Amino acid sequence: MVRLVQLLDGVPAKRFPLDKERLTIGRGPGNDIELDDLSVSIRHAVIERIGDPETAEYHIRDLESTNGTYVNEEPISCRRLHNRDIIRIGWTHFEFIDERAGQEKTMKIRKTWLPGVFISKK
Fold first, then answer.
1. Cα–Cα distance for residue pair 122/73, rounded to 1 Å
2. Cα–Cα distance, 119 to 107 (Å, whole number)
3. Alpha-carbon span 47 to 60, nearest angstrom
4. In sequence order, which residues have a C-beta less than 8 Å from that of residue 90 and are 6 or more positions away?
5. pLDDT digits (tens), the chain, 122 positions
């Protein structure tokens, strides 16, 4: 499951599943995530799913907001999101959670046997 977790003083407060191709964030009505924060623009940012939901990438794009969008405290115009990234929009913080991140393919280990010694190579 992929979701945004709204943080309040670093503690998870609300969860928003990213189950749509496009999720809008802003202060105005009609946004998927509506923030009651005067430092947030009416249409502030959008998160877009690119590709099949099973293997998709997620990108966040600032919609020319007044105060900008930040990922890990770096200002962005558009950026791919990675598991555990922290997004700041106005005074509101979110954590991007991608539970698929731990499901990477298992690495194959080559085994070499020497008398009395086991050596593992990548």
1. 35
2. 16
3. 4
4. 35, 37, 38, 39, 40, 44, 67
5. 999 999 999 899 999 999 999 999 999 999 999 999 999 999 999 999 999 988 999 999 999 999 999 999 999 999 999 999 999 999 999 999 999 876 555 555 555 555 665 555 55
**Distance, CA of 15 to CA of 13 (rounded, Å):** 7
- Our CA angle for 17, 8, 83, nearest 5°, is 45
Terminal CA-CA length for the chain: 30
For strands 2-8 and 57-62, give the pairing: unpaired
SS3 21: coil
CA 8, 14, 17, 18 dihedral sign is negative
pLDDT in tens, 34-46: 999 999 999 999 9
DSSP-assigned letter for residue 101: G
**Residue-level pLDDT at 100:** 87
